[in-house]
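tokens incoming
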């Protein structure tokens, strides 16, 4: 039976597909860590109070990258080269979403508008990350190797999403509501296209590794296109709403250390 759990299980059971899965995840998290670190260093004076939270966000992303690399090491695997068509972070940048790496590489303070752009971009992408990790937690929370990693990363992603809601609501109350909604909509519509393209690319690479039949690959591709059609019609709206989070000041403390994977 073709189900999300069976699909993930098949990928996790094979060394080469697991290697690619963890490598893609580790690369994306590491990029996020670098981006947040640079944003924290370049925060404008008017928003310096945000810097510790942005730093914590980056530390969490770095930790997630280390966790995925540790899972590889535990199975005696080395990181694989990440195919360009699976690089979610860089593909979003090419669509003009978020703050460009070239901008973050300069020693020039960001503007308040840049911070709003960063938070709006993060609110959209953290929605996706939170949903993906909840799915993995649903199926693999008790897995002997993945369980602790999945639960920790899922909790962190929920914290990141709560933080984005809280800070964007603060900016909205200060008069930036229309700007925030416009940027959120642009980010959400671009993200669902990139997510579709990356999902198709990942499934194509996995299919070659695992020897999937054309029929099975076609069914999976059709499912990805169906999700995109739903998100393009109405699903994107869940990425642009803002509400006071249950978790307040979710990034107000130090990052929790990564677990040991012996």
């Amino acid at each position: 039976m073709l189900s999300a759990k069976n699909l993930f299980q098949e990928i996790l059971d094979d060394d080469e597909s697991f290697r690619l899965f963890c490598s893609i995840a580790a690369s994306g998290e590491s990029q996020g860590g670098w981006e947040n670190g640079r944003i924290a260093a370049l925060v404008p004076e008017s928003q310096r109070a945000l810097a510790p939270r942005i730093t914590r966000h980056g530390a969490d992303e770095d930790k997630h990258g280390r966790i995925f690399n540790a899972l590889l090491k535990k199975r005696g695997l080395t990181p694989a080269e990440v195919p360009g068509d699976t690089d979610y972070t860089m593909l979003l940048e090419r669509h003009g979403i978020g703050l460009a790496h070239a901008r973050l590489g300069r020693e020039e303070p960001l503007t308040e508008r840049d911070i709003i752009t960063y938070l709006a971009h993060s609110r959209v992408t953290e929605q996706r990350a939170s949903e993906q990790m909840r799915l993995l937690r649903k199926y693999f929370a008790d897995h002997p190797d993945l369980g602790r990693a999945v639960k920790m990363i899922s909790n962190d992603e929920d914290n990141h999403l709560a933080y984005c809601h809280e800070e964007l609501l603060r900016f909205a109350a200060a008069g930036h509501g229309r700007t925030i909604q416009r940027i959120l909509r642009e980010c959400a519509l671009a993200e669902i296209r990139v997510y579709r393209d990356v999902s198709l690319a990942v499934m194509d690479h996995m299919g070659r590794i695992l020897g999937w039949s054309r029929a099975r690959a076609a069914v999976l591709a059709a499912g990805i296109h169906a999700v995109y059609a739903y998100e393009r019609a109405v699903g994107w709206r869940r990425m642009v709403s803002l509400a006071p989070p249950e978790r307040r000041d979710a990034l107000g403390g130090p990052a929790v250390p990564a677990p040991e994977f012996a």
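note: The CA atoms of residues 7 and 13 lie 10 Å apart.
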